[in-house]
Amino acid sequence: MRLSRMYPLSSSAINNGSHISSSTLPPSFYSLTPRQPSINPKNPITRNFISLNKSSFPPRKYSIFTNKQNMSTVCSSKSDKGSHDSPFQGGESFFREVLSSMEAVYLSRNPTAKAVLELVGSVADDQICYDHFAFRTFGVNGYGIDSMAKFFLDFGYTPREELRFPAKKLKALWFSPPSVPTPHGGSGVNGPLPRVFVSELLVDQMSPQTQDIIRKYTGISGSGNKHAALASALGSLTWEKPLHSEFQQLARESEYAAWTLVNGYALNHATISTHQLKSRLRDIKNLNQFIEKNGFKLNSEGGTLKVSPDGLLQQSSTVADSILFQFSDGLTESVPCSYIEFAERLVLPQYSNLPLEEVKEHHRRDGFEVGNADKIFESTSKEQLTRKAA
Fold first, then answer.
1. CA–CA separation, 336 vs 213, rounded Å?
2. Pfam families this protein is in (predicted)?
3. Burial (CB count within 10 angstroms: exposed 0-12, middle 13-18, buried 19+), residue 93
4. End-to-end CA separation in angstroms for the chain
5. Going by DSSP bridges, is the β-strand pair 339-345/269-273 parallel, antiparallel, or unpaired?
6. Where are the beta strands (DSSP E) in 217-266?
7. E strands, 166-310, in order
8. What CATH code is assigned to 91-386?
């Protein structure tokens, strides 16, 4: 698999290519210039930082590739053909282009994710499929799960189970993709459509000070909640940059809230479907060892490997990259950005006798697991970001 190198576009390049000048960009637009990481095992990456400026613009068409409360969710298809899927609605090429733009912003800001995708794909010239995309939201003023979900529902995604995280004051809902033939050899955003996992902060359960800050910025945003997918694809906040003191207030109470304040609807993480790899890395334990051997730090909360009670869903993730964010009062601080996750879905017991070459995705464990997800959330926590690699 080949990965094209990303280059930030200058304002003149933007003008020549798409007739968009910097003056037409929303005032809340910000972009990040990545420092290209090395994936040479002799020169491993242990930490990545991206500097903030207004001169770079993530290439729009870049792609790396041409419940119930406290429940443990175990889902499978209603039939061997996966009949629970809804048909695809609307223009598929447009939908995939939006996913590609979300992915481009994500990769431009998170060099670890970009390097890991390239590294994993280079083994046996493998094609990478995404298990799911995940987003974070504020559950207030229409800025919660529904704001991001609407885009996916419009294109045939189906809401599935709700998951609750009382200690973190969060809830989440995941969505299964519609039925659509996968192009031969398709991978990444051009491969099987990913599940979508959208979480939201239960703002009403936060302190009055934190509520006031969140309501202030979602209020400033106006109708920005109607354009969540667009904001994600552009890499733009729908509200103005916050004060540094406001970010600190949220961080003291909820690192999730602080992350969402400065990252907005940006893709929180993409997840590699390990069992769809061809190499030995299809076993997530082998993949974890491979990732760490090459200098990347994995989220150790609850153990590097997060396993569902039934043993059929196994997940791990890197620690988030960091970005230098300039707040509205001029102060600049390193804040967590996004990370990349790995998921292996094992074959359901009723299909255990199927030959491996006959096993399809609908024969495997579906859904999500509260215990696993709770630990994966910690990939953006200060404790994980500042922890020294083993």
1. 19
2. HGLS (PF07063)
3. exposed
4. 30
5. parallel
6. none
7. 170-176, 195-201, 269-273, 306-307
8. 3.10.180.50
Query: Rounded to the nearest 5 degrees, what angle is found at the Cα of 4, between the Cα atoms of 342 and 93?
Result: 75
**Using an 8 Å Cβ cutoff, are 235 and 50 in contact?**
no
The CB-side HSE value for 264 (13 A sphere, CA atoms) comes to 31
Residue 120 and residue 112 in contact, taking contact as beta carbons nearer than 8 Å:
no
Q: Rounded to the nearest 5°, which phi and psi values hold at 94?
A: -65, -45
Q: Where are the domains of the chain?
A: 91-386
Q: What is the chain's pLDDT, residue by residue, as a tens digit (390 residues)?
A: 434 333 333 333 333 333 333 333 333 333 333 433 433 434 443 333 333 343 333 443 334 443 333 333 333 333 334 445 688 888 999 999 999 999 999 999 999 999 999 999 999 888 999 999 999 999 999 999 999 999 999 999 999 999 999 999 999 999 999 988 876 668 899 999 999 999 999 999 999 999 999 999 999 999 999 999 999 999 999 999 999 999 999 999 999 999 999 999 999 999 999 999 999 999 999 999 999 999 999 999 999 999 999 999 999 999 999 999 999 999 999 999 999 999 999 999 999 999 988 999 999 999 999 999 999 999 999 999 998 765
The pairing of strands 313-317 and 158-165 is: unpaired
Helix (H, G, I), strand (E, B) or coil at 145: helix
Which tokens hold the place of 360? Answer: 């399809």
Radius of gyration of the chain (CA): 20
